Amino acid sequence: MTTLVHTPRMIASAPDVWTFPTGKTFSTCASTASEDPQSTIRRDVDRSDAMVDIMGHVAFGLLFALPAWFVWDDRASVAFVGLAVVASLVPDIDLWLRRVFPGAIHHHGVTHTVLFVTVASLVVGAVLTGLLGEQVDDWIGGEQFDASSLFVFSTLGFLAGGLSHLVADILSAPDISTPIEPLWPVVSEPVGIDLIWYNAAWINVGFLSVMVGVHIVLASVTTPVDHRYRLRPGERR
């Protein structure tokens, strides 16, 4: 990972100052000197709301979930992939939280840290194990889990998806929003690698299509035809 050094755009208008979880600030500037700084700030915030298209985050979640097909059988792999995909969107919950707590929560703040993703994963693992353990185990069928292994399974699935979101934002945030501080509070420096513009439609659609295709191939290759628990619902044989 590379610590981001921000270079302001070639303009003469007032900067927009962002605050990180640690209290540090990051400045972005209006795109033209003739624009009203306040309107530019509102526009930049709106753009940052959709910084990485949902398809891009889902694709990254699918990427991080690929090993599941080599570790578990059939529906267990499907469950792991599902957890990762859901979790790949969770850090952006701050887009809604900041409307409820406008002075305390901001985009790319505490929910975009490894600490938050880890704690959220542990909570989800505990809830799924405690409340839905029997249902999940019954649906998975072919892969029997006891309480402890189901907790680890659920936690890892959610953790994989959450971490995928942080990686996606590290690769894209510097273009149109504040870089994240994924290692806060241990490391308080923002991290960003200006690699890809993820709002580009061809990148999002292409990446997601490739990931879906890879998962379909892996599901076909790793699932024996005569396995009694198929990926789709059906009677046991």
Structural overview:
The protein has 237 residues and is mainly alpha-helical. Helix content is 54%, strand content 4%. α2 runs antiparallel to α4 (74-87) and α6 crosses α7 (147-176). The longest helix has 30 residues, at 147-176. The radius of gyration is 20 Å and the shape is globular.
Write the topology of this structure.
Elements: E1 15-19, E2 25-29, H1 37-49, H2 54-65, H3 68-71, H4 74-87, H5 94-100, H6 114-140, H7 147-176, H8 201-222
Antiparallel strand pairs: 1-2
Helix pairs in contact: 2-4, 2-7, 2-8, 4-7, 6-7
Beta-strand content: under 5%
**Which of globular, elongated, flat, extended, rod-shaped describes the shape?**
globular
Spatial order of the strands in the main sheet? 1-2
N-to-C terminal Cα separation, in Å? 49 Å
Could you tell me the mean pLDDT?
77
- Annotation field: number of helices: 8
Number of strands: 2
Biggest β-sheet strands, sense, barrel = 2 strands, antiparallel
The proportion of residues forming helix, as a percent range, comes to: 40-55%
Number of structural domains: 1
Low-confidence runs: 1-16, 18-24, 26-52
What Rg do the Cα atoms give? 20 Å
What is the N-to-C order of secondary-structure elements (H for helix, E for strand)? Answer: EEHHHHHHHH
Structural class: mainly alpha
